[in-house]
Amino acid sequence: MSKNVNIDWSKLSFNYIKTDLRYISRWKDGQWDEGELVEDNQLAISEASTALHYGQQCFEGLKAYGTKDGGVQLFRPDENAKRMQDSCRRVLMPEVPVEKFIDACIQVVKANEAYVPPYGTGATLYLRPFVIGVGDNVGVKPAPEYIFSVFCVPVGPYFKGGLAPVNFTVSEYDRAAPYGTGAAKVGGNYAASLYPHEVAVKKGFADCIYLDPATHSKIEEVGAANFFGITKDDKFITPKSPSILPSITKYSLMHIAKDYLGIEVEERDVLVDNLDEFKETGACGTAAVITPIGGIEYKGKLHVFHSETEVGPVTKKLYDTLYGIQFGDVTAPEGWIVKVK
Ligand SMILES: *Cc1c(COP(=O)(O)O)cnc(C)c1O
Fold first, then answer.
1. How far apart are the C-alpha atoms of 156 and 206, rounded to whole Å?
2. Residue 2: is its pLDDT beyond 60?
3. Would you say residue 236 has pLDDT above 80?
4. What Å distances lie between residue 217 and 23, 200, 213, 249, CA to CA?
5. N vs C: which end of the chain shows fewer Cβ within 10 Å?
6. How many helices (H) and strands (E) does the chain have?
7. 106 or 158: which carries more pLDDT confidence?
8. Is the C-beta atom of 225 inside 6 A of ligand 1?
9. d(Cα 18, Cα 207) in Å, to the nearest integer?
10. Active-site residue among 185, 232, 279, 316?
11. What pTM, to 2 d.p., does this model score?
12. Does domain 9-155 have CATH number 2.160.20.10?
């Protein structure tokens, strides 16, 4: 495909742009159809769709990366596929087979190849797979029909001027209940987070930190990203809880910490009253890879870690290694990379 698109890659942020084609597959009478690529970016669905009234839906987020040799690759799409199956099961939607999910992602990237930002720009092609309950329905019950779709948008690097720490404030609100849907990537958790996010931003913070909903004493999530901390004796610590969304970036960083950097890794409770145990902390997720945390405000006091202006050395190493793997500059563990081109 030699089509050219008129995009200034250096000016991209995280905004919707209509790309050429998107994948759509429909589920009815117990099965998914074959799926197809379509030009139309508008969905016509029943006004009585469960996705609109009862939040019966879920989504995923992953990226296609342009490599130095002109190739294009996906990072661990099988993990996104499996997580979407977990989300589907939690809200009683039919699972999309892993192969179908990966095939849909590859089709969308290939069909929109002109939108894959070139290597060196730090920009990527963001993929947004989702499943929604559709069809005519009024009662609170699972939908009679479903749509699985994947669209893509070119997005800029999260940090244009290099990794920069930001400050967070601890929220008094919860994004999910103790054994609710916190571990599923469903829209309801995000609806619940919009207001606390706005409150945090109005106070001058990048976003808020959510504590465990049962006791409000342990750190769970940082906005829509997972939390990690590096202890003073160089251990990588990340919270464990049934209401945390299992971040693929986080599990990848745990692997990198252990196997590439030789750092001990632990999943356990992180008490908000014991921030002193960490010399560096960060938030991690597909969008930014790592957002270094400068400080955390809790009960009116700002606890600063490494620095409010500079990223710590361990965080930087973790970031550089994962970023290098995603863009094909560092050798990836077996099975992490799926070549599209
Ligand atoms: C998607 C998401 C993350 C990050 O997951 P990745 O797989 O690393 O992108 C973290 N927390 C929440 C609440 C999320 O929705």
1. 18
2. no
3. yes
4. 43, 19, 9, 25
5. N
6. 6, 18
7. 106
8. yes
9. 28
10. 185
11. 0.97
12. no
